[in-house]
């Protein structure tokens, strides 16, 4: 069956401007590639959609920009369907850096085996126990270093990373305030995820609401958004506060360079620290996350949601949700069926 498989893949034909993704990505169909010596082929089951994909389309950052006229890069979770690799066999479940495609060929360097934690659905390894969970876990604990009783604020709080950050901070004994767009997301944060307060940054008077939600100021800010939201939180940062700079989604589709926070000098008077981090650097420490987060996820102490769309052909429509607030939890596309698991 796989010898005649077709590979649909999204090809990047130009650099996007202002979020015009439809105009720069085109879906092509070709015979699926065959693995060479020492390589294996992964059939994509789940494709992760991440804000940083927009950066990869545009310019060199921590990874080189995706070359024009090649398959768009993306994180995939899939099953090995052909293998010439001595340590990987057909049927193995793996995740790693692949493409917006039905199939990826790899020598295994950018892929790892999906761990088998009983009771957890496969899709959990695309969300809370995948790159998303690792970003929240290491960004909050390693960079933010929250202490019991402190106030932690997180932006894009109802998104993939943000929803995990708030719950981990609660488990560490903090007061947690989420910032998200719209009353439904805010109700989800306080009603289901146990956040102490949620502020709708799209509502009138949200800066005042934020101040009221943080009566003792902000000790740790987990920054996902940048721009005005970031500035408003910075105003409230406490002496020796920590800002874990995870991302700035409000700026990823900007057509002009964006100004930095106008109140950056507050870091001086508050003796506060702002530090960027990349989840990729934590790959060697993923075991720590599985050990602590695995039982939280399996035991329902940390709740999670994958916002799952269907079909590779719908990838762009789905991807755009990240920039309009259309997703709650981790955004992903299901590209093919999961194999039966024993
Ligand atoms: N440093 C790392 O290694 C690393 C790893 C993964 C992710 N990240 C970063 O973490 C952040 C969150 O990523 P994610 O995967 O968890 O995505 P996500 O939060 O699930 O989705 C993005 C959310 O951002 C919010 N948003 C979009 N445009 C906005 C704007 N202009 N102003 C304010 N909020 C906006 C939307 O929620 P609302 O409805 O609330 O507006 C949207 O649902 C991103 O900045 C991403 O680049 C960094």
TrEMBL record:
Q: Pfam families attached here?
A: ADH_N_2, ADH_zinc_N
Keyword Glycosyltransferase carried by entry: no
Q: Where is the Enoyl reductase (ER) domain?
A: 19-333
- Keyword annotations from UniProtKB, A to Z: Oxidoreductase
Molecular-function annotations in GO? oxidoreductase activity, acting on the CH-CH group of donors, NAD or NADP as acceptor
> What domain of life is recorded for the organism?
Bacteria
Q: Does the keyword Oxidoreductase apply?
A: yes
InterPro entries xref list: ADH-like_C (IPR013149), ADH_N_2 (IPR041694), ER (IPR020843), GroES-like_sf (IPR011032), MDR_fam (IPR045010), NAD(P)-bd_dom_sf (IPR036291)
Q: Which PANTHER family match?
A: PROSTAGLANDIN REDUCTASE (PTHR43205), PROSTAGLANDIN REDUCTASE 1 (PTHR43205:SF7)
- The protein's name in its UniProt record: NADP-dependent oxidoreductase
